[in-house]
Amino acid sequence: MTRPDDAHIALAIRLAARAGEVLTTQRMGGFEMKTDGSPVTALDREVETALRAEIAQAAPTHGVIGEEQGAERPDRDWVWILDPIDGTRQFAAGLPNFGVLIALCHLGQPVIGVIANPLIGLTCVGVAGQGTTLNGRRVETGAAGQPHEVIACLSDPDAFDARTRPGFEAVRAASLWNVYDGGCLGHAALAQGRIGIALSGPNLEAFDIAALIPVIEGAGGVISDWQGKGLDAASAGAVVATANPRLHDRVLSLLG
């Protein structure tokens, strides 16, 4: 796997800043429901349009896959995966627990991941081979090895179906205590060592997952599907992230 260079990292950080400019200067309007039953706002589309324009100027040979505007040159070696507002339900409801997700992938492997929320001044950047930073400061996950020693961030309980509900309940019962529906900010908290488990249901798409991989792994954590299989730029479905390999094994055993 080719590692990203300084220009790639600088562009990823610029993209996060550009998303912040749009989100903090434009007025929030209403929302529409997409065919899959999820909401989308005008700002989702405006953020993605702005990010695509930045990429077209700085890296015109790269591919782009965005949640709202589809794929452009997805067969290129370098491809950006964009979720302009991850947590649109919360955003549309006026809540601050949402984020912008930006990933750069090389040959299908995410090598840069950004979780950003301009409203709270958070920019978490993971780079393959270089670790993870929060607002420029290196962060690492925790060392606790048992679920009862850590806080678990669980996604919206409504996201779990009959197949995944037993695993959700097992992790909820085993952890020290729980917070809910933290989304990408829950993964940023895991990367900082503030929580130990982030559990997501089966409704995730590549846009929701790709940026999380370098952030979690760069901080020393582990992220996989519920069977322990590693993730890549095409991954979708239920995902679990934990602070370290020993804790990950324990949580996988709970998920069955």
In short:
The protein is an alpha+beta fold and 256 residues long. Helices cover 32% and strands 28% of the residues.
Describe this structure in words.
The protein has 256 residues and is of the alpha+beta class. 32% of the residues lie in helices and 28% in strands. The protein is built from eight helices and 15 strands. It has helices at residues 6-25, 42-58, 88-92, 165-174, 183-191, 206-209, 212-218, 245-255, and strands at 31-33, 39-41, 63-66, 70-72, 78-86, 99-106, 109-117, 122-127, 131-134, 137-139, 151-154, 177-180, 197-200, 222-225, 239-242. The strands form three sheets. The chain has an eight-stranded mixed β-sheet with strand order 4-3-5-6-7-8-9-10, with helices on both faces. A hairpin with a 3-residue loop joins strand 3 and strand 4 (70-72). Helix 1 (6-25) runs antiparallel to helix 2 (42-58). It is globular. The protein starts with 5 loop residues before the first helix and ends with a helix. The model has no long low-confidence stretch (mean pLDDT 93).
